[in-house]
Specification:
alpha+beta, Pnp Oxidase, Chain A, 12 strands, globular
Length: 184
């Protein structure tokens, strides 16, 4: 038996003993459920289509990358009908939603109404920005990286706003919820 075979056998035994699973196509739903155990914040990312029309999508794959330089990231699903607009965008804005903004999150989710009938303004780069977010990060696209069925988009924060009061909208177990601080 080769060393790599020994390692593979040891991994399989360990997975069986711990009831773990390897990700594969058949286990995709179980993997998604397991990933859903991690609570995330909810954001709306906005930009403009090539014809200038505003476009946005609800995203929970947002993270801080660096304070110096100020970088953030989010992941755009290649399967999204809005994907091409974000994959090519030179600038975008990320809006962190408050616990009472579930309807806004749903508006920019699959089959949502997006900007139809919604008020917004344009920033200096022509990116649509929404009022009343807990925080907003206006970004220039710094880099794009292949991430399987997503593209990881890194943005350099050029301007940001944040309110001092309010709790975030949270997504976990396939549902929206709220954060309850104070667990010891």
């Amino acid at each position: 038996m080769t060393e790599s075979s020994n390692i593979e056998t040891a991994i399989e035994r360990a997975e069986q003993a711990s009831h773990g699973r390897r990700p594969d196509a058949a286990a995709q739903r179980r993997l998604r459920t397991a990933l859903g155990r991690f609570a995330t914040g909810v954001t709306i990312v906005t930009t403009r289509e090539s014809d200038g029309a505003p476009v946005g999508m609800t995203v929970n794959s947002f993270a801080s990358v660096s304070l110096e330089p100020p970088l953030v990231l989010w992941s755009a699903a290649r399967s999204s009908l809005r994907y091409a607009h974000f994959a090519e965008a030179e600038a975008f804005a990320i809006h962190v939603l408050a616990e009472d903004q579930k309807a806004l999150a749903e508006r920019f989710a699959r089959q949502g109404h997006g900007f139809d009938g919604l008020g917004y303004s344009l920033n200096e780069r022509g990116v649509p920005v929404l009022d009343h977010a807990l925080a907003r990060f206006e970004c220039d696209t710094e880099a794009r990286h292949d991430g399987g069925d997503h593209t990881i988009i890194i943005g350099r924060v050029t301007r940001f706003e944040s309110v001092e009061q309010g709790a975030p909208l949270v997504f976990a177990h396939g549902s929206y919820g709220r954060f309850s601080p104070g667990l010891d």
